[in-house]
Amino acid sequence: MTTPYGQQPPHPEQQPFPGPTYEPAPQPYVGQQPWPPAQPVPYGAPQTPYAPPPAPAPQPTGKVVERAHPLTPLVRGWVAVVAVGWALLQEQLPGRHQGENLPWWVFVLAIFGVALIGLVAGFVSWRFTKFIADETELRVESGWISRRSRRISYTRLQSVDVMQPLAPRLLGLAEVRIDAGAHDSTKLRYLSRKRAYELRDFLMLRAHGAQVSVHEARAQTSDPLFVDVSATDKVIVTVQPHELLLGALVSHDLLSLLIGFGMPFLVVWGISTFTHLPMEGILPVVALASGLPLLISIGQYFARRVAAQFNFTLAQTQAGLRITRGLTNLTSQTVPVYRIQSIRLSQPLFWRPLGRYRVDLEVLGLGEATTRESSSNVSTLLLPIGSKAQVDAALEAVWPGLSLGAIQFTGSPPRAKLLDPLAYSWNAYGLDDEVVVTRRGWLTRHQSIVPHARLQSVGAYQGPLERLLGLANVTFHTTGLLHTHAVIHMAADVARTLVYEEADRAMSSRDTELLARPTAPVADLAAPSPVPPDRQMVQE
Amino acid sequence: MTSLFSPPADHWVRLSGKYAIVRIVGAVIINLIFWVPVAIAGYLLIPQVLPTPWQWLPTVAGIAWFVWRVIRAGRYARSWAYAERGEDLCITRGLWYKNLTVVPYGRLQIAKVDAGPLDRILGLATVTLVTASAHSNASIPGLPAAEAERLRDRLIEVGDAVGSGL
């Protein structure tokens, strides 16, 4: 019988506030037998006189409680040191104060003080952070003043990412970020790079339902330094740096950046040239005021679009799709394929002659914080820029057998030109047995691919003008917060048929998917066993 | 002829007629909070800028808007309807901007019943269907309270029987 959430029997190790030293479990309690569980010996069964020599037990009996790498406090403290050093250095600059400057020993003392505080804080946080990842559970304990213990279900993992910002990367450390549910992600920082990859591989294998042991997963892990691709992985797409640079240069984002910051200067320059107002004096001021932010934002723009995506590699691994990217900060993101809810292809105006596309994916739990392509965050990018062939390869990796070219599209009727002269020829929808594809947008052409089985609900809407013309829009709702998948200005009767038939397809395709789930081990979501394996152990 | 918003099965189930009262009371409250201060301020301040009849402009606008809301309340309440169609629930609403939402029962995660103070006085309640998508936005206001609870229970039962949500 499944116990409802919140009513699980208390975990024997989770006493309210355990002291810091409780690592070895005194005895294996029920539900924490070594893996694989020993054959139950009936009570009172005759003891064999000659006990067979105990096989070399691969598993230790107690829990393996791990900590972050001991260098962690150093990495987390140095940021504070640099910040204070910088602030003090600015104080020292001549001309800031009219009076005398601070004596030099204040300078040194302050840096040492901050460094000490940073180190102590880092040490305390390191001391109280522990995690357990073994065959039965994934648990992270942290916090000094307020304790926090998280236990994450292996089968509900959304993605596991390994991040290496510059400073930890230099020391050979990495951060493991575990996403599950809509809650903020659980961060383990910092582990040694090898251990981080090991943990990631183990978690992802478990997320796919494979009953691997820690040791098996460990044996499969390699320790790559630059690109996180091991021998068994299949690289699907590698994006060349010049492609990234091209994509960043030829984009209307850059153009709007230039126009936005250049406009004040142009206006003032125009006024001063074509009128006789005395404006020459303020021209340099305006140039500086708009030029400096422009330079900064262009720098940020290229850092985001090129440096953060540098060496972008999409690979198919045993544990899902893996995206590795970054120049200074190396990010390695792994997403189980069956968690992908939808995919969107975009083609900005200037990319059309180049035949390049950008591909985003929607995964539940990656949430709205990830719309930016920042270097430290997980992103929803599947491909920052790619040719048709690369896009097809990436799609093939996500949904094998999907061929966009074979799908027949239905467009808007000609009367829709009145409402939508620019995008009229692009607006369309197409269907096959697995997915529904919608097209819209005029400046950037979007193409959303939603599997019927991932659809949550279907909607239609019609404004007064559209009603006059007999047109309507259809929206497809998925769990993603980022985009709505809509096809606009369809003939009203076509829209009606589409809405109702799509609702039917959504149900029937989910039924067939549940009956034959693509990755066999994941079937414990739907299989007769009512309890996921990792919870079974506790409830016996 | 079937238009986009014709009933999917045999007929739409309309809301309780009392829902129009909820809309009217809502319009009164908004009038009190927003239009009354605007009208007073306009009456006091406009004469300093414009000639005499103009100080009544905000008052007239407020009254006009209120009358419009009252006239439309009945039609708006009647535009809102739901229907069960096989394995999904269809909801339609709106006068100018017409909406249709179809939620397969299998995607249902939560069915909620809410009733505000005014709803309770009139014996009404709102049923909301929650799926894993934030865009679904499927709710049926102005149902008689007993009907709302019956619908909620029915939705959850059918949803359980039909299949998985995510």
Structure, explained:
The complex is a heterodimer of chains A (540) and B (166). Chain A is built from 12 helices and 21 strands. With 540 residues, chain A is α+β, with helices and mostly antiparallel strands. In chain A, the strands form 4 sheets. Chain A has a 7-stranded antiparallel β-sheet with strand order 7-6-5-11-10-9-8, with helices on both faces. In chain A, a hairpin with a 5-residue loop joins strand 3 (138-142) and strand 4 (148-151). In chain A, helix 4 packs across helix 5 (214-220). The longest helix of chain A has 25 residues, at 283-307. Residues 1-61, 367-376 and 516-540 of chain A have low confidence and may be disordered. Chain B is α+β, with helices and mostly antiparallel strands and 166 residues long. Chain B folds into 2 domains: 19-76; 81-162, Roll (PH-domain like), CATH 2.30.29. Chain B has 4 helices and 7 strands; from the N terminus they run E-H-H-E-E-E-E-H-E-E-H. Chain B has helices at residues 19-45, 57-79, 117-122, 145-162; strands at residues 13-14, 81-85, 88-93, 98-104, 110-114, 124-130, 138-144. Chain B has a 4-stranded antiparallel β-sheet. Chain B has a 3-stranded antiparallel β-sheet with strand order 5-6-7. Chain B is elongated, with a radius of gyration of 21 Å. The chains are: A alpha+beta (540), B alpha+beta (166).
Nearest-integer average pLDDT of chain B: 86
Oligomer: heterodimer
Please outline the major beta sheet of chain A: 7 strands, antiparallel
> Helix count of chain A?
12
Low-confidence stretches of chain B: none
- Reading off the top of the CATH hierarchy, the class of the domain at 405-520 in chain A is best stated as Mainly Beta
